[in-house]
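Posting here for the record, re: magnesium ion.
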Amino acid sequence: MTKTPNIERLSVRTVRVPLPQAHQTAGGTVTESPLILTDIHCDDGSVGHSIVFAYNAFALKPIADLLRNLDSLLVDAPASPLEIERRLNARFRLLGTQGLVGIALSAIDMALWDALARRRQTSLVALLGGVPRPIPAYGAVGYDGEKASAMAAEKWAERKFRGVKLKIGYPTVEEDVAVIRAVRAATGNGLAIMVDYNQCLTPAQAAQRLRALDEEGITWVEEPTLAHDFAGHAHIAREAKTPIQCGENWWGTLDLQHAIDAQASDFMMPDVMKIGGVSGWMRAAAMAQARGIPLSNHLWPEISAQLLCATPTAHWLEYADWWNPIVAEPLTVEDGYARVDGVLGSGVEWNEAAVSRYIA
Ligand SMILES: [Mg+2]
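Prediction output follows.
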């Protein structure tokens, strides 16, 4: 039996990757991705990589500093994701493991799982006991009005994506419906349409709006109200026929448990960073399986596609190419399905030339 290697050192870099085009949401405009890139070097020569997303450049250096400060807790400790999670959770019990701390802990967890798979010369999905399988993928359409939304959706359809997700939450529900119908008219009935309010409505507004969307044949309505208003989402879910989708802003599996307890969401889409890395995702997948809840991802296409292959209730892959410039081999989507065959580790490896270009 081989001994678990120890962590030798941590390398943390920050980059600001510009988006090919600004992404409008009901909550504001995204123009770049401030990312923290972590490499964990182990004393057997194996290295694991991970990406975490600061959302806002203001948070970039604090998260990187936090990670660098964890060095003293990590060096010479076993390169085991579950053991490191146990130690770090104990260490942060009083401060809490949400927010920037949670992001830093997930960066470590994802890098350790990646190193573990690479050490065994295999993929993350194989390490988790699964096999690669095709996962249907959808693309994003911004808060861009009828014409531009329809054009963006057509582009995804031409690329054979299986669905599109539209940012809505226009001043009136009539405008929301007009955008959905414009997209449907441009792409036909074969394409699944999801919509995302990015938390912009009150529960009462949402209940009213969603009744108007009920006949539009939408696959799901995402985050109609505040992500942590589980009771509010449960109220909306009872009022609407269209399934509710939430999860990208839940911190850790306890949030997911609270959402399940409240019956807040028909579908769930954890974010691998906020849910607690690969370790957190696998627990979320088990909880979703027990309740028969379809699970999709939020961003992180490379690692999420592999996790979805190991998720019993896997639903949709949210595709995004935002971080493609810095990834050596971005996720492959063929005929609308994400493919992870032949991928090593979590699929995250650096395009070093691009990383140096965007270093912040
Ligand atoms: Mg969303």
